[in-house]
Amino acid sequence: MCFLIVLLSTIFATVVADPLYTACSTEYGNYDLGSPFEKNLKVVVETLPSISSSTGFNNTASGIFPDNVSGQALCRGDVTSSACQTCLREASQKLLKECKSKDATIWYEACQIRYSFQNLTSLNVYAGKYPVLESEKKSVSDTVHFYDYVKLLMDNLSIDAALNHSKLMFATGEIKFSSNETIYGHAQCTRDIREDECQECLSFALLDLKGCCSSKQGGIIVSGSCNLRFELYKYYNASSHLIASPTPKGRGNWKMVAIIVSITTISVLTIVIGSSIFCLRRKRRNYRDMERNHLALLNELAISRGITLTEEGQLVSSEDLPFMDLNTIIAATDNFADSNKLGQGGFGTVYKVSYKGASR
Q1: Cα-based distances in Å from 33 to 30, 64, 96, 119
Q2: Cβ proximity of 81 and 53 under 8 Å
Q3: What's the pLDDT score for residue 141?
Q4: Domains delineated in the chain
Q5: CA–CA dist 190, 72 (Å, integer)
Q6: What family does this belong to (predicted)?
Q7: Segment among 65-69, 115-119, 259-263, 335-339 with least mean pLDDT
């Protein structure tokens, strides 16, 4: 029972805490008290909590030009409908009290309300804000590697939020930074913008997040159409999913890359070496086969002519004809000298030889 009271108190405190940021635009001037614009404004901001709590998002409008007012409400994707309504009611009252301008937005941790004399569904101009309290957060020791992890997480969440309409353009996730530190984050867009507009808005927000909070243990960027946040604690209630993407540079991913490259290199070398050995063996086998076929042919011819062959295929003797080796012939013809040349026959040049002192 005590635990339930503490839990409800924590949730209630988060929902009705002070606003993160209030932007009362002075660019278009203020409205007059008691004017038709103020009456339409009250209708819009008082209607938004009830019509938006069940879905977490809605647009509404009241009045005609030049006193028309457009309004928009958005709750964080993980809060309940009752918590959403409580947050929006607090935001609407605070906005009416603090802003007298014709264009204003207020952001809480769990919700935001925006109104303007312009049509909000046609406004896609990014104007990100970050609360002052973000600059007061503690710094991390490893600033370079830490933000690599933050960016990896936010890039994945931004894509998930923009492309997955089943999640109502809201995504949460986490990534392990060290053995005892996990980074949690979320990305969200209003549901009246396109996928590409959502991604563009979140990319601008990520740049602002780097500028304000890259070395901090947490950070948040809010705007009219999208918002980003990360912390070293789980601040949202939705069931999160671990971003199973490659580890950012400077960490264990290089070890994994080295292992993969090594395995790939060894595999390629094994294939190349194996193929080379196979080809060489095949060449040698073909050569041996040709050599054996050649010797077989010589043996066949030699037997039919009564010729004796050595194992190497050299002619030794014949029953019909005497044989001389090449060295003997060279000596007998005086190395085929022109003076011993007798003429040209059908089988080649004919030489005179001297054999054992006798000319032939």
Answers
A1: 9, 18, 11, 22
A2: yes
A3: 85
A4: 2-122 (3.30.430.20), 132-251 (3.30.430.20), 257-313 (no CATH), 324-359 (no CATH)
A5: 9
A6: Belongs to the cysteine-rich repeat secretory protein family.
A7: 259-263
